[in-house]
Write a structure and sequence with these properties.
By secondary structure, the chain is α/β, with parallel strands linked by helices. It is about 40% helix and about 20% strand.
């Protein structure tokens, strides 16, 4: 039954800095089709609590939302989610505040105890959020309160499966963004499916938690026509497509690409296992450039196989199978590969650490990037809940411990709680190995990017996109002062997706924004790029910048180095 009271407009934001999860875009699209005026703030660069307050004062003044949804997908954003909720409550106590996402669903009981949160949505959010907006008395999947105020979790009544997701897809991208900067921050995420059927011991989103938090223990692929709608909606608005799902096949994805030209797009694909040769070939034939991340669990084959035999790790390739896939992918010149694994997993030994290092060295020798990190504590993961079972200790386990850890971090610190071995000698050996792998991996990454510059080096402007907006359109009317809203902004994107937004006419003494390169600095960057519009030597460009921008040779070289590092300039 509905009370007939619609909570609209709605503003959806992420709990972390940078780009919010693509989940709020699916939610906003669904709400729009349901008659709710939904907006997203996709990009967040606020650093201090004061910045957060200032941003939300402006956002609320512009949107005048009756409900604000905060996406708490990642556990390391829990402190910021609470900061945002408290800030909204102070600015306008009448706004309904809702949190949802994986971490919100896992910590529903603790979050429900905060008076700055009105509702926690458990599991999939489309139908529950629309029901809340429409004023329904018993919206599904929402935490309710008993008469004495205690939170009460009802059974999950809305669980997405392949049979009931026909109405979940991207739409209304012309209407949901609050600025061009938000729209351009979208990295092209498409969800071919949802869920996970594995129980990796280190993952908080494994099968057991999927069942508890989302009501499903098996993953599913979305309907082909809906994934095709995603591609149709975003293809003209993003430079790449990003995927993260184990069950997609070449046939499935090929059908979702039908009628959509992706030949000038890049693709980033995060795979949970070794891909079939057919999938690699299909990606290579469809996209201009592919960056494929293959997760192998850990770099020691013995350790990997033991975890798999105990049911503690998803199916992963043996080293031979991995090397065969790398060799097959190398036949496609537009495919790059990163091999990803976790260091410090249980059942390691000095022998296995040596094995880990040998595989890393071999992969780097094949010019594949290595992605490597130590084992972190994730809420609900088996090794986090029961570290003693693996002779380990965790730096956080409970909600209070995780929240306290993140609240104590200094600004700019992106560390997370870790899990380490009780045996101090083994822990020291693992850390030494980790440091060695990190050093090798970063040395290789830097070498791949390095361009040996000298005066005779010929460079060319390789910015893959150049667009021009007014300051008001780029930042949004809630961020750009009205008196400067018509000032021009030139937005450039490198081949790797790095964005530069230059506003030469915007004097930083009158208005500053951390996302802009303003005044003389902006003019110099644009002049340097213009100097290389045709293949030009570094020495010629230095002379040109000295004459036109009055830059000394050292400063001119610094500007050129900066643009080469961002891959806006590359060897001709």
């Amino acid at each position: 039954m509905s009370s007939g009271r619609a909570l609209s407009p709605v503003l959806l934001v992420g709990a972390g800095t940078g780009e919010a999860t693509c989940g709020i875009l699916y939610l906003a699209s669904y709400l729009r089709r349901g008659g709710i005026e939904a907006f997203v703030r996709l990009w967040d660069g606020d650093e201090s609590a004061g910045d957060v307050t200032q941003s939300f004062e402006r956002l609320i003044a512009r949107v005048r939302p009756k409900l604000i949804g905060i996406s708490l997908k990642w556990f390391h954003h829990v402190d910021r989610a609470l900061l945002i909720a408290r800030t909204i409550r102070k600015i306008d106590p009448s706004i309904r505040i809702v949190v949802g996402g994986n971490s919100a669903s896992y910590w529903w009981k603790e979050l429900s105890g905060y008076d700055c949160i009105d509702h926690v949505i458990l599991g999939d959010g489309e139908v529950p959020l629309l029901a809340l907006c429409n004023g329904e008395e018993a919206p599904p999947n929402c935490v309710t309160r008993t008469p004495d105020g205690r939170p009460r979790r009802l059974p999950l009544a809305y669980v997405q499966r392949s049979t009931n997701t026909q109405d979940v897809y991207y739409s209304h991208f012309n209407e949901i963004f609050l600025s061009q900067m938000d729209a351009h921050s979208f990295s092209g995420w498409v969800a071919p499916g949802k869920g996970c059927g594995e129980n990796c011991l280190y993952c908080g989103g494994a099968r057991g938690n999927q069942k508890a938090d989302f009501g499903r223990a098996k993953p599913f692929l979305r309907a082909e026509e809906n994934v095709r709608k995603d591609h149709q909606e975003i293809a003209s608005r993003t430079w790449q497509m990003r995927y993260d799902f184990a069950g997609s096949t070449a046939e499935f994805l090929g059908s979702t690409w039908a009628g959509v030209d992706l030949s000038r797009h890049c693709c980033t694909y995060f795979l949970w296992g070794v891909p079939r040769v057919e999938l690699v070939s299909a990606l290579a034939e469809t996209f201009q450039r592919i960056y494929m991340v293959i997760d192998i669990g850990c770099f020691s084959e013995q350790q990997r196989l033991e975890q798999m035999s105990k049911g503690l790790l998803k199916p992963c390739a043996k080293d031979r199978e991995l090397l065969e896939v790398i060799e097959s992918a190398r036949r496609h010149p537009n495919v790059e590969i990163e091999i990803s694994g976790i260091g410090g997993l249980p059942f390691t030994s000095r022998e296995r650490l040596a094995e880990e290092l040998r595989l890393v060295e071999r992969i780097i020798g094949l010019d594949c990037v290595v992605g490597y990190q130590r084992l972190e504590a994730q809420p609900g993961a088996l090794v986090t809940e029961h570290p003693a079972r693996f002779d380990m200790v965790t730096e956080a386990k409970t909600f209070a411990e995780f929240l306290g850890y993140f609240e104590r971090r200094e600004p700019g610190d992106v560390s997370v709680p870790m899990i380490r071995f009780k045996d101090k000698e083994l822990e020291a050996a693992v850390q030494r190995n980790s440091d060695r792998v990190d050093a090798l991996a970063w040395k290789h990454r830097d070498a791949r990017k390095h361009v040996d510059l000298h005066g005779r080096t010929r460079l060319k402007n390789t910015a893959s996109s150049v667009e021009r907006f007014t300051l008001g359109d780029w930042l949004g009317s809630h961020r750009a002062p009205a008196k400067m809203a018509k000032e021009p902004v030139t937005v450039l994107r490198s081949v790797d997706g790095i964005t530069l937004s230059c506003a030469p006419s915007v004097n930083p003494r009158r208005f500053t924004d951390p996302t802009l390169t303003q005044g003389d600095d902006g003019a110099i960057l644009l002049a340097a790029l213009a100097a290389f519009e045709k293949p030009t030597t570094v020495s010629s460009a230095v002379t040109h910048l000295g004459a036109k921008e009055r830059l000394d040779p050292h400063s001119a070289r610094e500007v050129i180095d900066h643009l080469v590092d961002g891959r806006f300039l590359q060897p001709a």
